[in-house]
Structure formats: C-alpha cells, structure tokens
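Ticket reopened. Same input as before:
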Amino acid sequence: MLALLACVLTLLIASALGSKPLIDTLMRLAIFGLYAVSLNILVGYTGLVSFGHAMFFGFGAYAFGLLMQTGVTSLPAAALASLALSAALALIVGALCIRLADIYFSFLTLAFQMLLHAVILSWVSLTGGDQGLQGGIPRPRFLGINLADPWQVFVVTTVVFFASLLAIRTILQSPFGYALRMVRDNAPRAAALGLPVQRYKLAAFVIAGLFGALAGILMALYVSGAYPNFAFWTLSGEGMFMIMLGGIGVFLGPVLGAAIFLLLNDTVTRFTEYNGMVMGVVLLVVVLGLRQGLLDVVMARLRPR
Amino acid sequence: MVDSGFGRPVFGSPGRRSVLKAGLVAGATLSMPFVARGASKQPIRIGQPSILSGRLAQLGISSRNAAQMVVDAFNAAGGLDGRTIELISRDSKGKPDEAARVVRELINNDGCQIILDSEASSGAFAVQEVVRETGTLCIHADSETTSLTADPKIRAPNAFRCARQVLHDSIVGGSYAAGIAKAQGLKRWMTCSPDYVYGRDSSSEFLDYLKMFEPSVEAVGATWPKLFAPDYTENVTRILETKPQALYSALYSGDLVSFIDQGNLYGLFDQVKFFAINMADYTTLHAVKKLPAGIYSCNRYLSTFPATKSNAEWSAAYDKRYNVLPLNWAWQNALAMQFLVEAIKKTGSDDGKVLAGALRGMTVESPFGAKGTVTMRAEDQTIVDYAIGWGVTIPQAPFVEGMQAADWTVIAARETEWKKQKGWA
Amino acid sequence: MSSALAVEGIDVFYDASQILFGVDLAMRAGEIVALLGRNGAGKSTTFKAIAGIAPPRRGRVRFGERDLAGLPPHRIARAGIGYVPEDRQVFPEHSVEDNLAIGAKPGPAGQRFWTISTVYEVLPELHRLRARAAGRLSGGEQQMLTIARALMGNPDLLLLDEPTEGLAPVVVERIMALLHRLRTMGMTVLLAEQNMFFCVDVADEIVIIDKGQIVHRDTAERLSQDEEIKRRYLAV
Amino acid sequence: MNLDAFAGCLSSASCLITQTSAGLIIGMLLFLVACGVTLIFGVLGVINFAHGAFYMLGAYLALTAYQLTDSYLAAVLCAAAGVGLFGVAFDRLFMSRVYNSNVLMQLLVCYAFVLILDDAVKMIWGAEFQSMGMPAVFALRPLHVFGGLVPPFYVFLVAVTVAIAIALGGLIERTLFGKIVRAAAVNRQMVSALGINTSLLYASVFGLGALLAGAAGALAAPVRSATPGMGVSILIESFIVTVIGGMGSIAGAFTAAVLLGLVRSFGSIGFPLFTDGLMFGLMVIVLLIRPQGLFARGSA
Amino acid sequence: MTAHLAIADLVKHFGGVVATDHVTLDFPPGSLTAVIGPNGAGKSTLFNLITGRIRPDGGQVLLDGADIAGLAETAIVARGIGRAFQIASLFPSFTVAESLAAAILAHRRQTHRMLTRFPLAAARGRADEVMHLVGLDAHADRLAQHLSHGDQKLLDIALALALDPGVLLLDEPTAGMGRDERWQIIETVHRLWSARRMTMIFIEHDMDIVFKIAQSVRVLKYGRVLAEGTPAEIRDNDEVIAAYLGARYAKAAP
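Engineering reply: fixed in the latest deploy. New output:
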C-alpha cells in the first residue's frame, strides 16, 4: 500500500512540477536505487560481499538491448527473457562463487565480472565493443504504452522501481528473508538449527542478480543503449559506495545512498572537474567518521535499547 | 505503516520517510537553478559534455580551451545584438551513461539550446541518442567513427559532425602508403592498433585502401594491445617475430608514446617502416623523448600544415593563452564553434532548427581547410575539405616534414563508393 | 629486589560476559606464587589481563612503581613482564632458534643476562633442536621453548600459564627442575596451575581462584594439608 | 583465435626465445607491483586496493626527480622513498583505523584514496600524459641471444627485479625483521606480548609494500607514459597475480607473475583479441580449483 | 533400557592428534548427564561429532538405534538433536522473539516462503511458548546483541529448545557468569529437563553444579572416557581425583 502511495505521489509531484531535470534525476535515482538495493540483498542481508554485482547490471542491459535490436517485437517479452537469462547466469556464477568463503568469494565474483567485461569488449560483432550498442534501442508500443515518449518511460521506470522495492521488501520480510539474515548473522548457528545455508546463499545471489539485471534493463531504456562500463568493476565499487553511504542495515538505506551519490556527483561535476577528490573525501569521512551509513546512524539513535 | 510482526517498524517509519523526501526536495531545488533566470538579453547557452578527468582528460581540456577562444572572440565583438554565448563545459569522466546524463542536464537544467559534443566515440553515440530524443542541435567535435554520421540508422537530422573521420584518414593513408610501398618495395604489412572499435576500423580500412591502391601488398599479421595497456612488450616481440616490412598503427597519445619507447628498446623502428596515423599531434611529438626519425604520420594537428599564416597565428594565439600547443581536438572544436557562431550571425537566431538549416552545406573560411575553407556537407552533415596530409617525422621542431596534402576529389569518390557498398548511399 | 606485582580489584569482560570479579593478587620479588583453580576459573584471564592482552575494565595492575593496566602488550613486556601463554603459541613455521631470536630483548633495566647461549646452557635440549621448526616439536619441547622465549626478553617477572598441561610426568619433572633453577637465580614467577602437587613442589605461596574470584591464599605447605579446601575448590 | 601462428611460434627457436623473454619482462614488472600487494596482505591481512595509485605516484615522483636531477638512480630512489613514506602515513592515519573492521571498510578507504590520488596527480602534474624518456645509459641497441632479441634496459629491469625478489625473500626469510614480520602474520598478539610494537611493525610493512610500488612506478617510467589513472590496469593485473600465486606468498607472486607474463606473450600470438579474457579466465580457474592460490603461504 | 543416544567406538583425528579416541558412551532416554574433564579432553569435539558439524573418522553415533554418524548437520538437527554453545551463538540483529520464530521456521522447513510475512502465526505462538519456558518473555523485543550475558546464554538454549529436540546438548551453560547468575540459569535448565524429560547432556566445569543436578557423570581425558557413574561414584573415584590433581603426584601426596 505504502509503496503504491509513494509511487503515485512521486508521479503526481513529477507531473505537477513538469520539470525535465527532476524527471531525469528521479529516473536515475530509480535505476541506481534499485541497483544498490539489489546489491544490498547480498551485502547487507546475506553477508555476501560481492565485488562483481555490476556483472548483472551490464548483462541485463546488454541482453535486453540485443534482444530488442535483433528483432524481438515485444518489449515485455524481451525484458522477461533478459531477466531469465540473467537469472540463469546468476545461478551458474553463484553456484561456483558461494563455495568460497570471505575474500575469495569476493575475488571470484570480481573475476567473473571482469571476464564478462572482457567478453563484451572483445565480441565486437555482437556487442559493438567499447562503443556499446549503437543506434538506439527500438521501443515498439505495448499495451498502449509508448516508450518513445520520455514521460512514459519515466512512468514505467517509476512503477517498476516501486514494484521491485515492494517485491524485494516482501521477500526480505518473509521467512525466506529472515533465513538470509540468519545466514548473515551467524551461518554456523543457522546450520545448527537445520537451515541449508548454501542453498540460501545461492538463492540470495540469484535474486540479487535478477534485480540487478532489472536495473540494467531500465538503464538500457534510459540511455537507449548499453556500454561496457555497465559491467566494469568501477560500477560495482560505486554500488558499495552507495550502500555504505546510505546504510546497509536499513531497507531504504541504499536508496538514500544512491540519491546522495547521484546528487553529490551531479552537483560536484557542475562546479569542478576534481570530482574524484570530493567523492573520495566524502567517502573517507563516512567510512572513518561515521563507520556506518547515514540511515544506520539514524536507526541506531532511534532504537530503544 | 507496516510492522515487522513484533512491533518493530522496519519500513517507512516517519524518520526515514522524511529523510527521503528531504533528499528529493533538495534534489529538485538543486536541479532547477534556471527557474529564477531573467528573460531579457539572456545569453545563448551552449553545453559541452567532455572528458575532463581520467586518462583522456586532455581531450576534454583542449576541446574546451579551443571552443572558449571562439566564444570569447564572438562575445568581445558584441555577440548577437548584445546577446553573448555562454559555454558550459561539464565532465562526463569518459563514461557514456554519464555523458548522456550530462547532456540531459545541460539541456533540461541549464537551458542549453545547443550541444557541442566533445566526447570520445562511445560517449558521442550516447549523446546522439539523447539529442535524437530531445531534438536539440548538436555538433560532435571529437568522434572520428564514420558510422556516427554515415549510417542512416544512427544519424539524426539535428546532429552534425565537425571532426575528421576514420574513413577519410584511411583513404588518404592508404593512398599515401601505397605510393611509398611501391617506391620502396614494401610488400609485407602488419598492424598494431588498440583493441577497440576505433583501432579495428582504422586498421582494416587502412589496409583495404592500401591494397586497393597497391595490390601487391599483403597483410601478414595483426596485434592488438588493449586500450591504456601499460605494456606493449608482447606486441613488439610479436611484430619482430612476424618480420613485416612496414607497420601501421592507430595507437595514439600516451599509448603511442609507450609503444614507441618500448619499441625503441628492441630497435623496432630500424627494422620496419612505421606508419603511425596519430603521431603528428603536439603532446605526442613532445612526449616522445627520443623521437625516431622517419615515422610516417598523418597530421593530427600541426601549426605548419597547412603552411598558412592564419594557421600559424591561430596556433600561436592558442599557445599564448593556454601556454600549451593545440591538439587535434582543439582545431576540431574551434572549427565546430566557428560553424555555430557563423550560423548564429547569419540567421540572427538561436533556434536549433533554423541554425541546422543554415549549417547544412555551410562553407566557412578556416585555417584548417585544405584550401582555406571547410564545408559542412549537407547530405550527411559532416565536414569535408579539411586539411589532411602525411609526412615524415624528424627529431626536432617542426617535427614533421615533407607533408603531402590529400586530394579531396579522390576522398569523395572513394567515400561514395564505400557508402554504396555498405548500402548507406 | 624491589619490583613486585600488585593486581588490585580487576574486572575483566569478554564482550558481555564478565570473567574476573575484582581479582586482587600481590607478590614480592623473588617469590614463586601459584594461581590454582579448575578449568574456567579465570586463571588464564588473570594472566591475559596482566599481560595487556585482555585489558581490565576496572582495577589496577601495579608493577614496581607503575600502573600497567591499559597499556598495550608490548609496553607491558618492555616493563619487564614475560608471558608464557597456556597453549604455548610458538611460531610454528619458525625454527627454535628463530623463536628465541624474536623474543630477544634487553630487560627493563637494560640487563642482557639471558641470551641464546645462556638459554642453551640452561636448556641444552633446545640447542639440540635449534634448527627444527617449532611446530614439529613435542608438547614438552614447545613448553620449554616458550619459557625460554620469554626468558630471552630478560623479564623481572615471568607469567607461566599452565606449563604442565597435557605433558607427560617426566616432562613435568623437567619443568619443575627448571623452575627450581630459576628460583635460585632470583626470578619472580607467577604460575597458573590445575595441578596441586606441582604447585606444592615449586611455589612459595598458593592463591586459589574460583569462578573469577580469589577465594583463598596460603603457603604451599599449609594448603597441601587442608583437605577441605582441596576438595572444595580443586578436586571434584 | 590464431592457432596456426601459435603452433608456428612454438616450433621456432627465435620466436620461443623472444616471446619467453617478453613474458619474463612483463612478469617482472607485474611482480614488482604485486609483491607489495601480497606482502601487505600476508602480514596485515589487508587488501590494498590503493596499490595501483601508489604505483602511479611512484612514476610521477620519478618523472619529477629525473627532470630535476637528470639522474635515473636518484629518480628511482626518490620515488621509492617518497611513496614508502606516503605508505607509512597512509597506514598510520587511515588504514590502521579499519584493520579491525570488515573488508568492505578497508576496500572503501582504499577506493577513496584511488579517487583522491588520481585527482591530486592531475592537479599537480596536469592531465597530459608524460614520458620520462630512456636514460642515456640504457639507450643501447638490443642484444641478440640465440636469434631472439633482448633489450639491455629489460635485462637491467629483470636483474633489478630478481635482485629485489631475492632481497625481499632474504629480508623475509633471513633477517630478524623478516622473522618478526612472519611471526606477526601468524600471531600478532604473541609478537606484541614479546615486547614488539606491532603497530610500528605494521606501518613499516605497509611502507615497504608502498616503497616497492613506488620503485615499480619509477622503474617502469622510462618505457611507460604516465597519466592520471594509470594505476588501475596495473592494479587489476597485480591482483590476478596475487590471487593466482596465493595471497601472502612472495614466491607465489613471482611464479604467477611469470606465468601471467607468458600467458600474455604467447596469448598475443594465439589469441590476440582475448588476452585479457585469458587472464581473468585463469584467475577464475585457479580460484575454483585452489582458492588459496598456487603457493598458499609459501615463503611469506 | 535402550539408550536414546549412544556413541560407539567414535574416533576423530586432527592432524596427528587424536581428539576423540574410541569413545563409547550411552545416554538413556530422559537422562540428565554431565560431561566433565580438563581442558582439551575432547568434550566440545564430542558435541561437534554428535551434531555432525565435524565428521568422525570412525565409529557410530546411534540415535534411537539408527546410525547418524557422517550425516549433514542439517539432517541431524532434523532428527531432533538440539545444541547450545559455550559462547552463546546467536543472531545479533534479531530480537529474542524473531530469533526463536526464525529457528522454528528453519526447523519446520518453512523458510523458503517468500511471499508470506515473517513470522507465521504458528511460529510466533510457539516462540512465545519457548520464551515463556526460559523466562525471556520480558525481553521479547530486545535485540539479541543487547541482552545481558546470562540472557544471551538463555536465548542460546531457547534456540535449541525451539526445535523441540529429543536430545539437548549444552556446552558449558554457565561459562562466563557470576555466582548468582549461574544458579539462575542452572535452575532454568533443570526445570526444563524435569518438565519435559528430554535427554539432556551438558558440559560443565562448576562441580557444585554438576553434583547438584546431574543424574550421572562422564569424565573425559585426552579424548578417552576416564570414568562414568553417579555423582557420588565420581566424587570418590581415585582416578578422577588424580586426573584433576595431577596423576604423578596423586600417590605421592600425603
């Protein structure tokens, strides 16, 4: 209900203001917010520190873009097919990665991501290499929706974003979600209570990959293309940045983190080309000063002992 | 309000909700500074997305410098009935999605009516998609990838290109190299270009035209260092192993310098004739501490080619103002901005459609023209008749001598043929 | 001999759980005191608190003129306290001689009585094993090595945590002999033990710890006669 | 894929020699950077993601020192010392605060420094790429060895790297400092209880790792142009080396670096368009089969 | 009387060290047994072997006559062996009620449900029951990480109880506690046992507690069974006394 309300409210505010920059900002926020939330399913809720989450963002974007460009006539069908492919990828990569513990898990996810990145760069005939998918992504009408119209793209993105948040939240609030937290908090104890820990790690990996890919699909729609840096390690790093900024212990923390990250990025690039310097300093202050995300701090203050 | 079941609110508690809202409101206010802008005598805003940080930062910086010089001259001369041009350059960090965002922001947020795109190719394609959607007038000033304006699927009526093209360079390079191959008996050719689309296109098209102009040559191998590779040892040894008589490379900037430094160690350039299309650009020429004599190169930018007074003056003015010599990207952006300024003056308008109409087929006088002028070809909205030439390096200024200028009638003929083959013309 | 240890009312916690409850313990220089108690009574924690590894939340650790509580372990070691942990903690991939070399340092007054050669003199078996990786020594040899490693730091006070645990009787005898020798050299030793009879043999005084508190203190002779105390705190 | 060329090279002595020596050279430069990463991880348990940035700093410091003194030796020493000191400060002021935190915190502190240092270099030295040029002593013709070509500068580089590897191995294996460092890697608390200031020890190890990165940047400066952001690709490659060799093993890093160098030099013949993919593929395979690396905790 | 849980000839090596050396023990249904022994006697290893956290090198673990040795930990838990740990092993970010509900759902294999809200009503009711049983009702909504040490130990036991186990293994339930807290927790444990008559095995160092509540005692030393019997028998067993006071010197002592 609340998600629906927030969704309608967002759309109303946006249409009332009718401001294109606001719409752009909100769309990017929805994309990166969803991406960060999906990463946080792993990092925050399951305790799996993936260095390679952008792999799914990039894969989703490319799969969708390529399907649309190579003649799938229905946009929802292409999106669903891309999601299915991404889930299959996540299943395979995840099954291999979760066998490893701690830092080795992280490294293996990174290695797989860089492998995908290398494939995207090398397979020029399919992916366009470093120049990305060119010529735009066709947007045939479906169900009366015309995604060639920016406003309708915005509406669809917003609806998908809130629906995804609702879905992720439902999952995280379900017995399944609590099982993931058990794995995060104390995997050996969870096993001693009869929980098949590895299976749950894998399921979390696939779900996170799925929503990461969905964010990638939205991104492909937004920029009307797909680029290798969608699957580059820097985007994985920025995902971490976002969730650390906003807070990994609170559901909406990553969304806030994404919002701050984007606003900071957009504002700083307006005034200086030394964007990295500013972002680096902010990151240092958050990590060394607060030692947790903003919403984590707020929640820690609010919670009675 | 939804509870977790044990009385602990987890989602949408008032605290977090208001934080989120505050963020949105802050975002909205930050994003709309133009709301308060006055209406009279407002400047004509031109947005320039470019790479100002990271390994390609000098691309953006020289682009910005050159465009700013033209803008300043226009404003100093009184602008358009007192209306000045404001150039807003913004960093995309070389990421295509960020370039798309910056362009949207420049258009929607900063009220730019015109986009001067100073992105590398991948960014340019992203910018192209944005301006296709918004209909904003756009000139790409740095992307050399031919398909951007040649491929009917990709080009857009409101988007122009004011930059050299891989195809043009390849035709010229092929014909120049064919002449030398014939004279010196260079039969075995090899390529060493960066492993990305520009490098691959450049190598294959160069070889195509080389073979067309001199059928006796054969390509005996190719090696593909990756972009920004620190190390070229394996490529150098690969070339030595293959023992070609001549080598073509589309490496540029720091990568080309590293390649030359590392090739020198093996005495590579004593053993093969080296055709480096991107050698003749000042930072590259200066950065190579021991520039081998006898490297064949196309001009990227040289103040001595075309050997005209106006070219030398422009170069000197740039050097004086920025204390650095101009690069290839500088002349392209200077010219692009000149096209815009002349279109504005000619039409007295800042309307994109009107300006686009004026730009199509426009010819301007320019130090960078092969014969003193450059034309924005109407059919595919890209420039022709700019100066292209090949020469040979010498270790000291002016670094390149024996420049042979290209013949644009040959280029035009071959280009038409090529487009027909592709089904684009 | 002026240096003496005085532990005053220390409380030690591991996270939420309190292990020591106001432990007091004083000893004079040149004395051998045994801290006796069952598994989990708090002996090791007391030692870790003194050595700075588990800093006390409350209380003081006076050593000579200084309060060591809260100092990092290396400062406490340099103040003249040599620590031999209960599970020995040799550096397993290092040779015996390297283990000793890592422990080498002058004492707090700059004395360098204990060197590799004096240690080998006292413990000739270590000389024989000097090139062997410490991880491949037997339990008794490892115990000798950790004591020797602590001696290499020329301490004024030696903390020996359960030196006989899990060792064969013949090895226990060797350690006993070593302690007698150290006593004649004037070394101050605080010893943690579960083994009553070992304590009676080597210690001047015995302090009994139970459930994180000091419950009894007496001379070794008197305590060995006290069946009630023995049954209550030590036997089953 | 070009398997004919690959087979052709394998059957030609001069090709084998040239490509093997090329692989060695690539491997040596990789090792120089990777050994710092592996040293810092082996002792401190910290993955130094800022190591590539240290390498960049080394290259720039060397460039400036060379311009000022015209002495390559001074340039290398200056870069090594400068970056080493920077590493010590970085450890004491920033990293030491997150030693006890999770990997994520450490990663983010390093990431912050990658961003900051890239921009700092741009501010100080400018955005244009710069090249040091070959010092006159090394501007010699390449040597011919059994039909293969080997440049003298690379002979020097290989010699220096092998010397550094041996010195580092000796330092870690033979000296008291090395013994203490190895002991601290196993049991920091016990080392501390023996009177050794482990904070200082950690800082010095971090400084040593940084010094090696600085030296690597300086040693590579004559043949690699310097630009802001140049550390990234080196960082990724040295991570592959570190992971394949086994985190913490100097010998492992050396072996893996040579292995990777050979993969690159022969891969450029057999699979010219996918050498990057080959390296990541190798990393994936090693992680799957032997996650602790080929030489888990070998000599360090 | 057949044993509820029986261990036959169990062996476990770690490297060259024998941690469990041909141990044979049995525990009758509804018995309350203490396992004692010096450090390193193999008590915790024994628990790990029973619950399948580590695999035995040889021997059998018989639950109601069926061999469960070598099964996965989750499979063994499913057969009704619950376990609490020496250092309370909890889910720090869960409230007490959430911890228990999660444990119940995990045990009932209902954690795969993604669309229902946690906790299911049935689990919640059962969680309330268990909370009441161990007396943690008042702390239902406090986070596990914020509980006192004693309450953390209780919660750890409650997690095991939530599985409604036939056999409950408690590893040092009183470790790290003050005098009064110890007795509180031990009273709770004893009350649970007498109310529910499950087979309960606990490791303990506090002999006062052992002798007060245990029906029978097993003594381990160096991975072997040294003695077994009633508290009174153990108290007077010379070998046991010697093991604690030092073997070589036991006879020499006056």
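The longest strand of chain D covers residues 143-145. The longest helix of chain D spans residues 13-44. Please confirm and we'll close it.
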